[in-house]
């Protein structure tokens, strides 16, 4: 497969053989192991005890170690989630420095039916949390930063292929000629970390987190999914988020979005 940046740099060829595939793998060259050893990593019991509440209960934070741990239960349904560590590893090593900021992955460990992914703790706040308090020029700058990362253009493009024509069901049609690209898969504003309120200067992007749903998708996916998510939230919570999406991901025709929304609703949402 080929990763084709927008810049004139030559494509980066990626082979599965380049990726670490062990059920337990740690990276001695990562920043964590410059100051710590394997024995400093928290045990499964400590990880469970430090779990965040609510929807983030699969995440545990250890600020004294600058460490975040993600727990993945290795069921058939969530088997693909184990690849998140590989995605972080590949993005940090194969993309030019800081093109797409992601947490540094230190390694992962399989323990029974659980996988623990050990990664850098990003000391910031989510864009979703801070959005309404940001000045208009800060919003514009953050959108420009995210657009420069070009999620659905910059990463990896698969060779185009012939696609079968779907039977007409009288429903809105999704385009069948859209490029298939590597996407984050869930680029909501809650997965974009920016500098905290206490940081000097204007807000800036620190990292894009939660790559659990990343994969090969049509290029309209990265716009449509967060818009669906935003539409499910109270208007006072989202403000002008939806209007800003094209500044980050480019325009997607409204009929394409409506077709996407139709199929999402038909299958009961995400």
TrEMBL record:
<dbReference type="InterPro" id="IPR011009">
    <property type="entry name" value="Kinase-like_dom_sf"/>
</dbReference>
<dbReference type="Pfam" id="PF01636">
    <property type="entry name" value="APH"/>
</dbReference>
<feature type="domain" description="Aminoglycoside phosphotransferase">
    <location>
        <begin position="171"/>
        <end position="218"/>
    </location>
</feature>
<protein>
    <recommendedName>
        <fullName>Aminoglycoside phosphotransferase domain-containing protein</fullName>
    </recommendedName>
</protein>
<dbReference type="InterPro" id="IPR002575">
    <property type="entry name" value="Aminoglycoside_PTrfase"/>
</dbReference>
<dbReference type="InterPro" id="IPR051678">
    <property type="entry name" value="AGP_Transferase"/>
</dbReference>
């Amino acid at each position: 497969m080929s990763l084709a940046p927008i810049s004139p740099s030559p494509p980066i060829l990626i082979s599965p053989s380049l990726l670490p595939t062990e059920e337990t793998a740690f990276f001695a060259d990562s920043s964590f192991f410059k100051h710590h050893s394997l024995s400093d990593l928290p045990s499964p019991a400590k990880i469970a005890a430090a779990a965040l509440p609510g929807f983030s209960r699969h995440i545990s934070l250890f600020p004294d170690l600058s460490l975040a741990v993600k727990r993945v239960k290795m069921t058939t349904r969530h088997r693909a989630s184990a690849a998140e560590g590989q995605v972080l590893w590949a993005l940090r090593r194969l993309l030019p420095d800081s093109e797409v900021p992601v947490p540094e992955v230190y390694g992962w460990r399989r323990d029974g039916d659980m996988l623990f992914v050990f990664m850098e703790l990003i000391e910031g706040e989510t864009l979703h949390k801070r959005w309404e308090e940001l000045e208009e020029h800060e919003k514009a700058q953050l959108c420009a930063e995210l657009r420069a990362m070009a999620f659905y253009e910059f990463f990896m493009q698969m060779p185009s292929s012939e696609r079968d024509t779907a039977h007409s069901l009288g429903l809105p049609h999704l385009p069948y000629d859209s490029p298939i690209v590597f996407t984050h898969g869930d680029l909501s504003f809650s997965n974009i970390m920016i500098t905290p309120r206490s940081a000097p200067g204007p807000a800036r992007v620190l990292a894009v987190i939660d790559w659990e749903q990343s994969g090969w998708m049509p290029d309209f996916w990265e716009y449509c999914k967060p818009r669906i998510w935003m539409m499910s939230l109270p208007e006072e919570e989202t403000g002008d988020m939806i209007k800003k999406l094209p500044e980050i991901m480019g325009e997607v025709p409204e009929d394409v979005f409506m077709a996407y929304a139709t199929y999402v609703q038909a299958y009961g949402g995400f």
